[in-house]
Amino acid sequence: MVVALTDGQTPWPSARPRCRTVVGLFARPAPNWEDSEEYRPDTPPDWARVVTIGR
């Protein structure tokens, strides 16, 4: 299993890893300085299992 921790700006792998991939997404309070147009994190790929952490 791979657990991905990212700043949201690092590109996701273009190919699915051979093992299960889990992505933990933390809830973001609004408003947030990171909500600018320059900082829009990419959504995880369809092959990743996404777990939302927080609200």
How is this fold's topology laid out?
Blueprint: E1 2-4, E2 21-26, E3 49-53
Parallel strand pairs: 1-2, 2-3
Q: Can you characterise this structure?
A:
The protein is mainly β. It has one domain (about 1-5, about 20-55). Helix content is about 0%, strand content about 25%. The chain has no helices and 3 strands. The chain has a 3-stranded parallel beta sheet, with no helix packed on it. The chain is globular. The model has no long low-confidence stretch (mean pLDDT about 75).
Number of helices: 0
What would you report as the Rg, rounded to the nearest angstrom?
A: 12 Å
- The helix-strand sequence is EEE
The major beta sheet can be summarized as: 3 strands, parallel
> Could you say which overall geometry the principal axes of the C-alpha atoms support?
globular
State the domain count.
1
Instruction: Briefly note the structural class of the backbone.
Output: mainly beta
Sequence stretches where pLDDT stays below 50 over 5 or more residues: none
Oligomer: single chain
* Percentage of residues assigned to helices: under 10%
Distance between the termini: 25 Å
Task: Trace the largest sheet across and list its strands.
Answer: 1-2-3
Q: How many strands appear in the DSSP assignment?
A: 3
